[in-house]
Amino acid sequence: MCASCSYFSRQIGFTLIELLIGVAIIGILAAIALPAYDSYITKSRIRAAQVDLVALSMVIEASYQRSMAYPAGEFKSTEAVKGKFGAWQPSEKSFTYSVVSSGSTYKATAIGTASSGKAKGCTMSIDNEGERGSSKCPYGGGDWQ
Questions:
Q1: Alpha-carbon distance 126 to 112, whole Å?
Q2: Do the Cβ atoms of 96 and 110 come closer than 8 Å?
Q3: Rounded Cα–Cα distance for residues 108 and 91 (Å)
Q4: Residue 40: which CATH number?
Q5: Which residue spans traverse the membrane (predicted)?
Q6: Using the 8-state DSSP alphabet, how is residue 131 labeled?
Q7: Whether the model pTM is above 0.85
Q8: Cβ-based neighbours of 12, under 8 Å, separated by 6 or more
Q9: 7 located within any domain
């Protein structure tokens, strides 16, 4: 054994305490970051659904300009709405879109599904007069109203 070698110069690797401290720091950072990330995702889903509703409203208004009447009917699923208004494609898949329309009025609605996380049950709507409404939306549904 070398007389000039000290205990500290021969130490290789990490001690158990150092590893536990590192794991604890990572755990604390994850506990702070994950809820913030979840709220960011929820807000972005709500905002995307709002944009989809405005785009749908524009497609319905363009249809009105061609025939001077809104297409009458109830389109209760996203697929039915896409089938009737082919120029519209939603970017947000975690909301279900529907349109109820008569010859002179319409109301387009987006409802959060189970895959939308905290936005489940969030309901937003827009009508032919541009009136917007929302209910059960976390974070107030943004500035939708």
A1: 15
A2: yes
A3: 16
A4: 3.30.700.10
A5: 12-37
A6: -
A7: no
A8: none
A9: no
